[in-house]
Design goal:
elongated, mainly alpha, about 75% helix
């Protein structure tokens, strides 16, 4: 499911480039709604995108208890982020895909929370 979330992130960021004025703002050095581009802003957004990317891998490599808790914690965080972003957007495509992203991350939380706690043999 984390991989599905990442595909949505990539596609919405691509489609967002077609919003009138978006590329001009980027060329001017602005990341909306964060403002002027700084190394700190770019580092923060890079970390924000690295976490779901790492969770694709970590979900397979970590033991079930740690993987479960990471998915619950970060699933909640990313669901809340998406709901905030969606509430501030005026573009229908962005709202639609944002709701899909929020639904996917909420589903990650629910699945991790309800996944069987014992080893299946």
């Amino acid at each position: 499911m984390w991989a599905s979330v990442l595909f949505c992130y990539i596609y919405v960021d691509y489609f967002e480039l077609y919003i009138p004025g978006k590329l001009h703002g980027m060329l001017e050095g602005n990341i909306m709604p964060l403002g002027p581009v700084t190394q700190g802003i770019l580092l923060g957004t890079a970390i924000m995108m690295a976490i779901p990317s790492l969770l694709v891998f970590l979900s397979l490599m970590l033991g079930a208890p740690l993987s479960r808790w990471l998915s619950v914690i970060f699933g909640i965080i990313y669901t809340l982020i998406q709901l905030i972003v969606v509430s501030q957007s005026g573009w229908i495509f962005y709202i639609a895909i944002g709701l899909v992203e929020a639904a996917l991350t909420a589903l990650i939380v629910w699945t991790a929370w309800t996944w069987p706690r014992r080893e299946i043999t």
